[in-house]
Design brief:
The complex is a heterodimer of chains A (80) and B (160). Chain A is built from one helix and three strands, in the order ββαβ. By secondary structure, chain A is of the alpha+beta class. In chain A, strands 1-2 form a two-stranded antiparallel ribbon. In chain B, a hairpin with a 2-residue loop joins β2 and β3. The chains are: A alpha+beta (80), B mainly alpha (160).
């Protein structure tokens, strides 16, 4: 049974190819478990735009139609 | 999102590979794979009308193997997962899908050498058979393709 969960998303932020990158953590509340991972990133971006912050840029062109996980990024660790 | 529990922290980072420079945030430049394909991931054939079906008989197991190799979508997960930053699974899938079929055998030797040379030139590492690439591959491309690439490459070098 899908439920709504609260999560923290720790995302790599880097303004450009030469810029120094860093991780930023965002709280994401009330995320439906039936959503895909990419939809979760969309929800995060909607939240960031609403807060007048720069949304997370990610590459999903080859993956979204197939609903696979091969975006140009990866989930490296999960922790409670 | 069903794999995640309430309260969890999810860490997301871009592909980590010297050959995939970060463009912004999670987006990386995977143009290196396109350059490898341009080096030899093709067959040179005369264009024309559609050939007759079954004009070139290919055994079903061979066609299946070629099709499995051709399922590679070039996402870059293999190189990013590899501790050496090697693109061998990608290159081997592309070499295999062509080398297994009669249409691709003509240029097989030149293809293997050119694609491996381009892979090295672009800064990808070498394969040490850890198998991380195959474990991460979303299309389940087999490590057997790397063995085939090594065989193709060696036989091409012997022909020099």
């Amino acid at each position: 049974m899908d439920q709504y969960i609260d999560i923290k998303v720790r995302v790599w932020r880097q303004a450009g190819p030469k810029a120094q990158g860093h991780f930023e953590t965002y709280d994401l509340k009330h995320v439906f478990q039936g959503a895909s991972f990419l939809e979760m990133i969309d929800i995060l971006n909607e939240q960031l735009v609403a807060e007048h912050k720069d949304p997370v840029t990610y590459d999903h062109a080859p993956s979204r139609p197939a609903s696979c996980t091969c975006v140009s990024s990866k989930t490296v660790r999960r922790s409670l | 999102m069903r794999k995640f529990k309430d309260g969890e922290t999810i860490t997301v980072e871009p592909w980590r590979s010297r050959a995939f420079p970060v463009i912004k945030d999670l987006m990386v430049d995977r143009g290196a794979y396109d350059k490898i394909m341009q080096a030899g991931g093709f067959v040179s054939v005369n264009t024309g009308g559609v050939p007759d079906a079954n004009a070139i008989p290919i055994p079903k197991p061979v066609a299946d193997e070629a099709m499995d190799a051709a399922s590679c979508i070039g996402c870059g997960a293999c190189a990013a997962a590899c501790k050496n930053g090697s693109a061998m699974l990608f290159v081997s899938a592309k070499v295999s899908q062509l080398a297994l079929l009669p249409q691709g055998k003509i240029e097989a030797a030149a293809r293997a050498k050119a694609m491996v040379a381009k892979m090295d030139e672009l800064g990808f590492g070498n394969c040490t058979n850890t198998g991380a690439c195959a474990a991460e591959c979303p299309k389940s491309v087999s490590l057997a393709n790397i063995a085939r690439l090594n065989r193709e490459f060696l036989s091409a070098k012997f022909k020099d």
